[in-house]
Amino acid sequence: MDDIPLSPPYRLATPRLSLTAADPRDAPVVVEAVGKNLEQLRPWMPWAEQAPKLDDAVERLRRVRSDFDRSEDFSYHAWLGSKKQPEASEPGGRFVGATGLHSRAGEGGLEIGYWVDRELVGRGLATEMAMAMTQAGFLAFGVDRVEIHADPENEKSNAIPARLGFTREGTLRARIPFPGGYRDKVVWCLLRSEFAGTPSADLELAAFDALDRPLLLLR
Ligand SMILES: CC(C)(COP(=O)(O)OP(=O)(O)OC[C@H]1O[C@@H](n2cnc3c(N)ncnc32)[C@H](O)[C@@H]1OP(=O)(O)O)[C@@H](O)C(=O)NCCC(=O)NCCS
Question: How much is the pLDDT for 7?
């Protein structure tokens, strides 16, 4: 994308979470978590048919990270705690799930994705991730529009943009490629002009560049 800053946030800190640029070195933790969460992911995530193999996950995360480093698409891994990501084996390095700002929303926009470990759902952590992505989308990445797309049947996912003041713009038919056919998707959108006064604007958020230096979030 042309209008993405040279220094996107490689780390974001919310009151409860540390969001770090997806890294192939996270693969063992991600593989374990996806394997453990297949049942809750499979109905909604086309990639969650079966447990990923470690080497495939490393390759996928290498591509994902390469997209991040080239400022094309921004996937983050979420960890409990607001500190810099500790080693996964250290206490406090609890993997929560994944989120991101994806370029598939087209020019001027980024689309948020999210999933959370089933042991940690129901605590507002996905909402916190979505708030961080929304604020970063407008204040760090400078986009004009942040979107969330969800299957109409996915109540828990649709509840998040509804809670965050997004507008439900409509349902696109047969738009999510899925094993066995295409699924409909609901498109939720928040415009830059609507951002002030939403819960995402009020989120306490700190952003850091690739050298972990604080980044100014321009309001
Ligand atoms: C979609 C998904 C991320 C939602 O997770 P979640 O835990 O329900 O979402 P949140 O973290 O925002 O939590 C919301 C719940 O926590 C409660 N909550 C507690 N503290 C909260 C807080 N501080 N802020 C918001 N909600 C809070 C809410 O009341 C709500 O409870 P309810 O489900 O009983 O109504 C999760 O179900 C998931 O990973 N699903 C599989 C993957 C998926 O579908 N991804 C989306 C694809 S579009």
Answer: 81
**Which pLDDT does position 101 carry in this prediction?**
98
Could you tell which of 16, 19, 123 is best to mutate to test the pocket of ligand 1, judged by most ligand atoms within 8 Å of the CB? Answer: 123
Q: Is residue 1 part of a domain?
A: no
Number of structural domains the chain divides into:
1
Ligand 1 pocket mutation, candidates 39, 95, 116, criterion most atoms within 8 A of CB: 116
Q: DSSP of the chain, one letter per residue?
A: -TTS-SS--SEEE-SSEEEEE--GGGHHHHHHHHHHHHHHHTTT-TT-SSPPPHHHHHHHHHHHHHHHHTTS-EEEEEEESSSS---TTSTT--EEEEEEEEGGG-TTEEEEEEEE-GGGTTSSHHHHHHHHHHHHHHHTS--SEEEEEE-TT-HHHHHHHHHTT-EEEEEEEEEEEETTEEEEEEEEEEEHHHHTTSHHHHS--EEE-TT--EE----
Tell me the CATH number at 41: 3.40.630.30
| Ligand 1 centroid to residue 120 C-alpha, Å | 9
Q: Is residue 218 part of a domain?
A: no
Query: Domain limits at 184?
Result: 11-213
Whether 219 is covered by a domain: the verdict is: no
Domain-embedded: residue 6:
no
Q: What is the pTM of this model?
A: 0.94
